[in-house]
Amino acid sequence: MTSLPTSRYVSLTTFRRTGEAVPTPVWAAPVGPRPEARSERARREGDEVLSLVVWTRADSGKVKRLRHTSRVTVAPCDMRGRLEGPAVDGLAEFLEPSEWPGARAALARRYGWQWRITYGTSRIAARFTHRGRERQTMIRITPAARQ
């Protein structure tokens, strides 16, 4: 199984209902494998399936597109979205709020002070602008199984 990119930025491509691809550069942090996401071959060979977590606004276009289809591609890129390697097919799913602490910890390990400032600022802004509603969401991306 092809592993997901672990570059500082990844180009997350989601798909419109028309099939048109919409790439977006995002921060993504690697997290450990989910037992049910591991293929039988990976379990036999001891390979770990790497997942990525992405933090984004709950009302963003990518979230709306993911509600339609969980199919994505991810590729290493620079901060402006210029690709730096091949794309890998993946599947995206929204994390349950109970899984967010682990995802936030992975992002904090990956991005350090930049994550803490960005996340902290977002939380402060949300207190004033979105009382009682969650403004952000977390997404897990796993490699798509090959047929």
Number of helices: 3
CATH homology superfamily name = Electron Transport, Fmn-binding Protein, Chain A
Strand content: 25-35%
If strands are numbered along the chain, what order do they take across the biggest sheet?
Answer: 2-1-5-6-7-4-3
Fraction of helical residues: 25-40%
- Indicate the CATH architecture: Roll
CATH-defined fold name: Pnp Oxidase, Chain A
Number of domains: 1
How large, in whole angstroms, is the Cα Rg? 15 Å
Low-confidence regions: none
GO molecular function: coenzyme F420 binding; oxidoreductase activity, acting on the CH-CH group of donors
InterPro entries: F420H2_bilvrd_red/Heme_oxyg (IPR052019), PPOX_F420-dep_Rv2061_put (IPR019965), Split_barrel_FMN-bd (IPR012349)
Protein name: Pyridoxamine 5'-phosphate oxidase putative domain-containing protein
Keywords: Oxidoreductase
Would you give an account of this structure?
- It is a single chain.
- The chain has a single domain, classed as Electron Transport, Fmn-binding Protein, Chain A (Pnp Oxidase, Chain A).
- Helix content is 30%, strand content 31%.
- It has helices at 40-45, 61-68, 100-129, and strands at residues 9-15, 21-27, 29-31, 51-57, 71-77, 88-94, 136-143.
- A 7-stranded antiparallel β-sheet has the order 2-1-5-6-7-4-3, with helices on both faces.
- The longest helix has 30 residues, at 100-129.
Features:
single chain; alpha+beta; Pnp Oxidase, Chain A; seven-stranded antiparallel beta sheet; 30% helix; globular
